[in-house]
Structures are given as structure tokens and as C-alpha cells.
Amino acid sequence: MPLITSNEILLRVNRLLNDTAFVRWPKDELLDYLNDGQRAIVLRRPDAFTSDVDDFSCVAGTKQSLPDDALRLIDIPRNANGRAIRGPFDRAVLDDNYPNWYGGNTAIEAELFIYDERNPKAFYLYPGVVLATKLTVVYSKAPPVITIIQNDANALVSLDDIYVNAIIEWIMYRCYMKDAEYAANPNKSLMHQNAFKTQIGEKSQADMSMSKEIIKE
Q1: Domain coordinates of the chain in residue numbers?
Q2: Which pTM was predicted?
Q3: Whole-angstrom distance, CA of residue 95 vs CA of residue 217
């Protein structure tokens, strides 16, 4: 749950840049970088900003479309009646064993879901369900843009506080990229860009380690 405001982050960046009057980098410019940084994190870590929909309503059949604000699917854990849904399942297994499975549309609950990253806004269910079958669907979406008015009214950032350092590194990277004509700044920009990537990478590695520990238990 985020507890830090966008303005707090901008003030921290402002001090790091030694631009306390927001002269070289105006506040609205830094806020644009902050918004870009949140989107950059979600692009690399789709689980950083998700929506959990318990009453997702299906169309009849196997192919389903995610809501308009979705970026990609994270999980489909269950039917509304509580029965678990397994997945993501290998589509080739179904294609080889049940080549006509795409035509199903009579089931009242799904057993499996199939998802392909190359088509991120759609997924398939097996067996094909009747109209208005309800599922729990978890998907990633883009963080809402924070406006300057919202920032000055102490709006919270959208991402969890564990991503604050990564957001700061992204803003610093973009700030120094603006002044790339100065000899030292391209190196500073690259340093902050690499720090951003490291922050996100270390978070991913920590999550993988935790997942392995859970599996062992």
C-alpha cells in the first residue's frame, strides 16, 4: 500500500539535484518523469500495479477479452462458485488431444485458462463457458497519471513504497539525460538508469527466492 506522496518524492529529487527553486527542472517536468517512471516499473514488473476483479463476466465460448484498462493477465485463480482454475495451461496439449475444444460454449465453470504473452489482452478458457459465467481475474494495468493539482494536494503515488527508490532513480536518469550536452551528465544519467534496473532486478530476485522457499515448505 503506498504511503508516500508524489510531492515528497519530487522534493527528495529536488534536493539531490541541488535545484531547490525548481529552476532547471520545473516541478511539472519532474512530475512527468515520475509518471513515466511508474509506467516503466509496471512494464518491467506487471505485478507492481494490479486489479483484482471478483465478478469478471465472460462472453460465451473459449476466447475472452480483458477489461479495457488491462495491460496483461496475471492470474485467474477461481470460478465465482469457488472452484479453482488451473493455469496458465499449455495450449498445444489441448490442441493435440482435443482439436475442437475452441468451439465449446456450454460449461458453467472453467477448469483451465490459456494465456499467450504475444496476445496480452486476451485469454482462453477450457472448457468454453456459457454467457455471463463469473470468474476472479487478476490483471496488470497502467498507473493513473498524477496531475500537478493532485500533486500539490498531496496525492499518493500508485505503486507500493518499496518502489520509491526505483522511481527516484528513474527521475534522476531522465533529468541528467536532459542535460546530456554537459560532459559529466551522460555518465550520471547512465548511472541512475543502471541503478533503476538494479532496483527492479533485485526486487524480482527477492520475489523468486521467496517463491522457492514457499515451495520448499
Answers
A1: 6-47+145-216, 50-141
A2: 0.84
A3: 35
